[in-house]
Design brief:
Elements: H1 3-20, H2 40-62, H3 66-69, H4 79-82, H5 86-104, H6 109-130, H7 145-159, H8 161-166, H9 170-181, H10 193-206, H11 213-225, E1 227-229, E2 232-233, H12 244-260, H13 265-288, H14 310-318, H15 327-342, H16 392-395, H17 402-406
Antiparallel strand pairs: 1-2
Helix pairs in contact: 1-2, 2-5, 2-6, 5-6, 5-7, 7-10, 10-11, 10-12, 12-13, 12-14, 13-14
């Protein structure tokens, strides 16, 4: 990247960081948005931060220079291995979070111009990734990790079918379908990975290609068996105390049901339960966010940062939050989390690429499978940008979220488990 571009990026990054300072309860001057235009500033800051995250990835991909430009930070000794998959991770995960904004974001003004640019860049990025003559060609069959990120790319396409599917040239669509089919030769793990295989089949269906009904059915039925209660699924036969119900399980189940629920009566019959559980889990997630925007550092993949709240962001986007959780309090909670995880010193390298960590650069928080491209799952927190600026999520006055209310002395009703509510347990 040229020095002038680096300097420009640095100035923009500094401005975005400053815009997010103080957007958490417990910080001076911002408890109810009094010193900030609680509507315009929040959305503008979100768009600016999303731009900051995604610009290096998609600017490089549109020029077919991602492999040339993107650094690969990884677990010691894993750098060479992770180069086989990290670029597809950056593409699929970055698009998965950005997709609702690409599909439904502003069409006029500065935001509209930026969105249109990213729509063009996203299609160019997909074309670059599936073209075998491209220096940024991504070998979808080269490593089992590609099962995961082919699915995140599929999730993005299903979230933005007009911009990321219908507008793709026919030749690119054919190359994309071939790339997706290549992942079938590898066996997914017996856990949330079943949803990855199913999501790829759902995308092939959307592309008008033959698809494997059994992979979708197996993922849906096994997750029904793995439900443990109160909106929470096991990650396979066992429950794991981590954020994978949010990173993957709820959002993938919801999207699968949206896309494929009408294909089989049995799948359609699962829809109400899947949606009810996702709504309950969103309530749990909202309560996990402390007044200062921090949250429990527990379980694997914590370096995905604010992506840990994809389930809450998805519920806000779908307007399926529980009645006791207002959209504006979720806006405040997510803004606080974004600030806590993306503005600490050390989060970004000098060229604007994300570095491993949760609150700054903390490479020991990265498991063996974590690399630079993995980190772009943080975009999942930005799903509500797919709502128009007139929606209550953006237009209502700033509001405290649950923990901020409780720890400031407000009196609130008690919380109840999903399955115990009728009995009053």
């Amino acid at each position: 990247m040229k020095r002038r571009e680096v300097l420009k990026l640095g100035l923009a990054a500094s401005a975005v960081g400053m815009a997010f300072q103080g957007l958490a309860y417990g910080e001076a001057k911002s408890a109810a948005g009094t010193d900030i235009d609680g509507i315009t500033e929040d959305r503008a800051s979100w768009v600016a931060m999303l731009d900051r995250i995604c610009m290096p990835v998609f600017d490089a991909l549109r020029q077919r220079r991602l492999k040339q430009r993107m650094p690969v930070e990884a677990y010691s000794g894993e750098e060479k291995h992770r180069r086989q998959t990290t670029y597809l991770e950056a593409l699929g995960r970055g698009l998965a979070g950005m997709a609702p904004w690409l599909e439904h974001g502003a069409t006029t003004g500065a935001e509209g111009q930026l969105r249109e640019k990213y729509c063009d860049w996203a299609r160019a990025a997909i074309a670059s990734a599936v073209d075998k003559s491209s220096p940024d060609y991504m070998d979808f069959a080269g490593d089992r990790q590609t099962i995961v990120d082919t699915a995140f790319l599929s999730l993005a396409i299903l979230r933005a079918p007009h911009e990321l599917l219908e507008k793709l040239p026919n030749a690119v669509r054919a190359q994309l379908a071939d790339a997706m089919r290549a992942t079938r030769n590898m066996l997914p793990n017996y856990n949330n990975w079943l949803l990855f295989a199913a999501m790829t089949e759902a995308c092939l269906c959307a592309l008008g290609e033959p698809w494997d009904r059994m992979r979708v059915d197996y993922a849906l039925r096994e997750h029904a068996n793995w439900y443990v209660g109160d909106g929470v699924y096991g990650d396979g036969p066992h429950f794991h105390q981590d954020y994978y119900n949010s990173f993957v399980i709820h959002s993938f189940l919801l999207t699968l049901i949206d896309a494929m629920g009408k294909q089989e009566t049995a799948w359609g019959d699962m829809a109400a339960g899947i949606r009810e559980r996702a709504t309950r889990y969103s309530a749990i997630q909202e309560r996990m966010i402390a007044p200062d925007g921090t949250y429990p550092v527990v379980g694997r993949s914590i370096a995905y940062r604010c992506g840990a709240f994809q389930a809450l962001a998805d519920a806000a986007l779908r307007q399926s939050l529980p009645k006791e959780v207002s959209p504006e309090q979720v806006r405040g909670a997510l803004t606080a989390v974004i600030r806590r995880t993306l503005t600490p010193p050390g989060t970004w390298d000098q060229n604007g690429w994300l570095r491993i960590g949760l609150a700054g650069h903390q490479p020991s928080l990265g498991e063996i499978y974590i690399s630079t491209g993995s980190l772009y799952l943080c975009t999942a927190a930005f799903l509500p940008l797919g709502l128009p600026s007139t929606n209550r999520f953006w237009s209502a006055p700033a509001a405290k979220w649950t923990s901020a209310k409780v720890w400031s002395g407000e009196d609130l009703p008690v919380d109840h488990a999903l399955e115990g509510r009728q009995r009053g347990d």
